[in-house]
Amino acid sequence: EVQLVESGGGLVQPGRSLRLSCTASGFPFDDYSFHWVRQAPGKGLEWISGISWNKGKTTYADSVKGRFTISRDSAKNSLYLQMNGLRLDDTAFYYCAKEGGNDHGDFDYWGHGTLVTVSS
Amino acid sequence: SSELTQDPAVSVALGQTVRITCQGDSLRSSFANWYQQKPGQAPILVIYGQKNNRPSGISDRFSGSRSGNTASLTITGAQAEDEADYYCNSRDTIRHHYVFGPGTHVTVL
Q1: What are phi and psi of A89, to 5 degrees?
Q2: How far apart are CA B64 and CA B71, in angstroms?
Q3: Once rounded to an integer, what is the mean pLDDT over residues A23-39?
Q4: Contacts of A95 in chain B (CB under 8 A)
Q5: Cβ(B84)–Cβ(B106) under 8 Å?
Q6: What mean pLDDT is predicted for residues B13-22?
């Protein structure tokens, strides 16, 4: 069974940092690209970052570029999101998502999400 | 532009058919994928890819199509459990970014 489990969310002050983790199981981790997608309360989905299965190429939405860093660790079957310089508008549920393997740009499995609240 | 647009909300009578559309320039060169999200839950993929495939376990009430810069998700014989938010997404092949539409809330009457 494919599972993605996020952790690391919480309450953080503006300007501080937080690191999210996503542990994957039930499939060969190295064979797939992964993404972080966030959703502010009551709002829609926003793709923010992805990392490829081969060579670990990373991409970022303009809203987080230069502040957030995505990474992956094959030994731990884990995906990470290092978030620096957090702002009030970064408050959201953060989902990790596995990309489907057929180059369709789809996200075929999602974690349950972890809530990040940025507040003073 | 890689933006996608969707109608904010649609309603459908129980057992009837509803079509949700998604428009954007990226759809001319990239596939549209569709997700269903119910309150308090993570999104789930319902339609993906060039041939508008359904993942395992997704009802055949859901189907997809694409023409030019417009993709559509059709729910045929809508059921109460289909009431949810539906998001389209595609990939911006130039910038290697991914984009979601703003979502359409489907109400089953």
Answers
A1: -80, 5
A2: 7
A3: 97
A4: 42-43
A5: yes
A6: 97
